[in-house]
Amino acid sequence: MDNAAPLEDIARFLRRLQWAAVVVAALWLLGMLAPVLTPFVIAALLGWLGDPVVDRLEARGLSRGAAVGIVFSVMTLIFVLVLLLALPIVQRQVLTLVDSLPTYSAWIGSTLVPWVEAHTRIDVDRYLDVGYLTNLVREHWQSASGIAATVLGYVTRSGSMLIGILVNAVLVPVLAFFFLRDWDALVARIASLIPPRHLPVVTRLAKESDAVLGGFLRGQFMVMLILGVMYAVGLEIVGLDLGILIGMVAGMLTFVPYVGPASLLTFGGIAALVQFGDWQHFGGVLIVFVVGQLLESYWLTPKFVGNRIGLHPMAVIFAVLAGGQLFGFLGMLLALPLAAVVNVLLRYAQERYRASRLYGAEPSPIVIVESSPGAESGPG
């Protein structure tokens, strides 16, 4: 009897050691199979994003196959349109930026630096050689273009790499279709593997994780898309040559509070002053900034994000960087889902801690119900 407690502790430690070994082996296997798993993860994310729409179409009377076909066709059409419309525009804007670097360099040296020195009494030229930095950027940009051309040539000459790219390009939509079609069945199969006594807690945590991740990805993506288009159109109306590029960058940075609007005001204001040299066009940029802030605060965020719990921007940035450092592109894809799950688990652990005796919570009272003598006998 005296040895029962130590043996139980040893057995518990060995079980935990086994689970730790399983986790380490799984992480090692994940790193080894990262290139193979990447298209599956991309397809799974697409299936997860499209499944709610498929469920809504099913609720309106469509069959699962018809709903999947509609959603898959719309997703494919959107992807093709983005490639056909956005890529040429981005390419032209980047070329315009490269060609405009000497103009921006001259403006910084002749206008911005003297203004800063006059108002701050700091000798900026002593610490900053604007011409050297601009030439450095241009040289590295040309080097980067040369490297990209070399890599592209190597890829096209390498048969195996080219075949791998083509296989992934075909495999992702095929896998996304199957994930869309069988998503509910996959979820049900995973749920059947969970012990029944843990199923309510696991179901609750899974729903909360889906709400956190869905609130961030679906809601913030719509906010970023609408603001990016609105910023780009607004800056084009103002007349900026780089308006589309600045607007798209500001829209993509909207998921970090203050960074997106600040980048719009900073880069857009500088572009307006360099290109036109007056305060009227800077005022136009300021109007676009104010309209975007009002649109985001009073319509976009309440409509698409609402009160759903999102991830803190610092947690998002850390998760993406850490995932990329550990597992490359696959780690970046898995970073947000894992961060959402960890966020939910931490909140659940905090809830359990606050309800524990360690925190000082009162134990639940035990109620003993005395039954009547006749209640113990069964039906005759």
Folded structure, characterized:
This protein is mainly α. It has a domain at 197-310. Helices cover 83% and strands 0% of the residues. The protein is built from eleven helices and no strands. It has helices at 4-32, 34-59, 64-120, 124-127, 130-157, 159-192, 199-238, 243-252, 259-275, 279-305, 313-354. The protein starts with a helix and ends in a 26-residue tail after the last helix.
Q: How is the topology of this model organized?
A:
Elements: H1 4-32, H2 34-59, H3 64-120, H4 124-127, H5 130-157, H6 159-192, H7 199-238, H8 243-252, H9 259-275, H10 279-305, H11 313-354
Helix pairs in contact: 2-3, 2-6, 2-11, 3-5, 3-6, 7-8, 7-10, 7-11, 8-9, 9-10
The string of secondary-structure elements, in order, is: HHHHHHHHHHH
SSE class: mainly alpha
Cα-atom radius of gyration: 28 Å
How would you describe the shape? globular
Helix content: over 70%
Compute the average pLDDT: 78
Q: What profile does the largest beta sheet have?
A: none
What gap, in angstroms, lies between the N and C termini? 45 Å
Features:
380 residues, mainly alpha, 83% helix, globular, disordered C terminus
Précis, in short:
This protein has 380 residues and is mainly α. It has a domain at 197-310. Helices cover 83% and strands 0% of the residues.
